[in-house]
Design brief:
Blueprint lengths: L11 H11 L10 H18 L13 H7 L2 H11 L23
Helix pairs in contact: 1-4
Length: about 110
């Protein structure tokens, strides 16, 4: 799936400011609803074949969709604004909170 760039929810100065003020940065628009649905379907199809992918490390090495999420230009731009251009995708992990379960994700 090709990355379709949309206007980011915040500029790089806001990303950096929020990160250093709060320790995290949210509100970065990465996917359209259709793209998000696509990636969810890809995850669900993979789980039908492979079983639960909850807390499976380095999932981007076997699932193209996970790699596309982790390397999306809007995310890469945000990380680069904070850390600079010298970065490496070392790990990606889904933390999945299924509906109607009593467990929680902190």
């Amino acid at each position: 799936m090709d990355h379709v760039r949309e206007k980011p929810a915040m500029d790089n100065a806001q990303v950096v400011n929020n990160y250093f003020k709060d320790g995290f940065c949210g509100g970065i628009k990465v996917f359209s609803p259709d793209s998000a649905d696509h990636h969810r379907r890809e995850l669900e199809q993979a789980e039908k074949k492979l079983g639960s992918l909850h807390y499976v490390n380095k999932i981007h090495t076997i699932l193209r969709s996970s790699y596309e999420i982790a390397t999306h230009p809007e995310l890469v731009n945000a990380v680069e604004a904070i850390l600079g251009p010298d970065m490496l995708l070392h790990n990606s992990t889904y933390i999945i909170k299924e509906p109607n379960t009593e467990s929680f994700v902190s």
